[in-house]
Every structure is written in structure tokens, then in C-alpha cells.
Amino acid sequence: MTHHLEESTARAGGPLDDARVREIIRDFPVLGQEVEGHPITYLDTGATSQNPVQVLDAERDYYLHRNSAVHRGAHTLAVHATDAFEAARRAVAGFVGAGEDELVWTSNATEALNLLAYSFSNASTDRWRESAGRFALGPGDEIVTTELEHHANLIPWQELAARTGASLRHVPVTAEGELDYAAAADVVGPRTRVLAFTHVSNVTGAITDVARMVELARGVGALTVLDACQSVPHFPVDLPALGVDFAAFSGHKMLGPTGIGALYGRRELLAELPPFLTGGSMITRVTMEEAEYLAPPTRFEAGTQRVSQAVGLAAAVDYLSRIGMENVHAWEAELGQRLAEGIQRIDGVRLLGPAAGRERAGLVSVHVDGVHPHDVGQILDTQGIAVRVGHHCAQPLHRALGVTASTRASAYIYNTTDDVDRFLEALAGVRGFFGVDRTR
Questions:
Q1: Mean pLDDT, residues 134-159
Q2: Which stretches make up the Aminotransferase class V domain (predicted)?
Q3: What is the percent of the chain with per-residue pLDDT over 90, rounded to a whole number?
Q4: Is the pTM of the predicted complex or chain greater than 0.90?
């Protein structure tokens, strides 16, 4: 298979533009296809990104030359597999500013957040209360999340509250779909033990002021949990510098394979946190009556691990690093503004979230008057334009914005300004196609 990485990112450190993006696209074979005679315009990275050949080759090379169980064998293949697995951990941890002992492999961000929530409830049992008391919750304690959240950063906390008797509260959003920080100052209080919030909304593209939220939590001694799924792939993120206690992100949103994600935790917290999944490879001593557990991160990685996926994610991190995350961020900010500005010029189409000119990620969601989002998506698909339709696993946010569902376009490093303009032109024709009264 031909490799293009050195060629397409030879100007690493320089800004992205349409010409350079077209070079990068050569690394993504899937984008060379057509739909009904139209070239694919892939604007659904917010759900799942595409994979460059470098990531595909890295995973294939692992299976061809190093496949074995990690941390279990003393033979040569097992040593090589373990080395690759831990090298991948170092690479991905370094990408977000963390130490290798602060990154736990999971299947995805959803599993990472559930792992954390279940570990908190384990801390509330007699078995762990003495050593992990700072994570124990009970009646009178409060867990705070926000109205912006993906269900993966809401439902685990709902269930944790139900298991422990703690109360669940939330920070509302403004009419523009951004966090209401004034309200947050009232919601976060002396009973708050956990503050869980997203870095970037997967619906509106609004970017959270993390420092402000961390300050609120620290002021009352609460732990912070950051959903970084829509930030780590798109702009430079240094999790320790942000000051959050825990964070989760997924590989499949940042050019990596499916089936791999990560939980970040400050090392001193992971050292006290009880495990959730138990079994092989995470223990030091086992009798018929009890077990003792390894230090983090291995303590949280029971069973056979996602070795090839970790190797693939490390290749994705290398790919993004060569391009430069500042360059990724600048390009997506340009595309995001182009999307927002174009949408605001289309009659009968409402932009959800920050208006054009406000800081936002490179994604937009819209409500088209008189046309169901599924119909919008089908019309766009006939023109080769792939977008996401539905509630994007964020029903409370859509409800707060007065809609049940929306159409979302999300850009990445393989999207050009032509892609954005093609989407805007197609979107502008949707209401006319369905004969919806433009004065409605």
C-alpha cells in the first residue's frame, strides 16, 4: 500500500489551506468514492472520523509481525507486543500532556465514563470506604452535570446517583445553547462532590470555559470530569494544564480505529480509585478469599486488551502531530465560521448554538423549518453529502433549544472550503425541494 504521510504533511508546522488539505485527502481512500455519481463530502466526523492509510497499515503491521497477549508471556512475540502496547500508551498520553501512568485504555469514551462512575460507587462500599473515601457518595451529596452533555456524560451519573442516594443537578444552557456560567455558580455548591461537563458540545460546537468550571469545582472541593471527545481530536489539549481530575476521549473520532478510548486521571487519584472490572492481568495476589490489585493504569485493564487498536491510535496521534494541532484548530475554526455564516444567510434554517463570529468548533447543527432532519439528511445524501441527523445522543439539549432533532455537519482535516460550500448550497435547496412556504 502506498504511503503519503511524509509527502502530504511535509510542510508540518505551516497552516492548512485547500491545497494542502487536498494532499492530505490522498491518505484517505474511503474519500475517493462516489455516491450516486457525486464525490463523497464527508461531514460526519463528529460521529466517526475516517482513517488514513498510515493508521490502517500500523494495525495490520502489528498483526503481521507482533500479535500476542500483552503483559502475560515471556516469549519474544509477547515482549514485542507488550512493548508496542506500552509505546502506544506513552504516545497517546503525551499527546494530551499526561504521564503514561495516567492513561487507562478503554473501548471508548462511554466505557471510560462508566468505569469512573462505577468505581465511584465501589468506593461507597465497606470494602473500599477507608482507602477511597474521597470518591464515596451518599445521601446529601450532589453530582452536577450540564444540559450540554452527550448521554454518555449524563446517564452514568444518573445511575450513580440512583445507586448511592446522591442528588443529581445540572447547569442549564442559555438561549444560544451555551453554558450559563452565572447559573453554574449557583448550582455548584458545598454539597457538590463531582462536576462533569463537556469540553465541546457535540451539537452546538460551543467551547466550554474549562478554567472557569474547574475554579468553581475547586472552590467547593469537588472532582472534575471532562468529556474531551470533541476537543482532543480538534485542537491542542493539555489535560493536566487544564486542571481537570479526570477526562475521557475516543480514538474513532481522531483518525484512530474503533474499539479504543482512554480515561485520563491524575496519578494520585487513580492510585486511590477502586477498580471496576476485575479478573486477569490486573492483580498481584489472589487467594480463594481475596485479591490484591496492581497499580494504575493496569489496575483498570482487566482481561485481554485492545492491542492493535492502541497501536492504531498511536499512529493517528503521530499523524495529527505531524500536521500540527494548532494548524488543525485554525483550519477547523475557519471552516466552522464559514459554515455558521453561510447558514445564517439561508431563509428558514436556524443555526443552533453560537452565532457566526463567536468562538466555536468546526461543527454546526441546524433546524430546517418544515422539514424533518431525516428528510434533510436523505436529500443531502443523494448529493454525496454525509451528515448526522437525529438528537446526537443529546436529547435534553435539543429539548432546551426547542427542537426534537437536528441536522449536523462536522468538519475535519480532510474537508475543504468547497465541501462547506457544497453543503450550504444543498442545504439552501432543501425547503424548496419539499415545497415548504418560504414565508412560514
A1: 97
A2: 41-423
A3: 92
A4: yes
Which grid coordinates belong to 414?
A: 480532510
pLDDT band (50, 70, 90) for residue 130: confident
pLDDT at 18: 98
Active site residues: 393
Q: Which residues contact 36 (CB under 8 A, 6 or more apart)?
A: 382, 383, 384
- Residue 9, pLDDT > 70, answer no
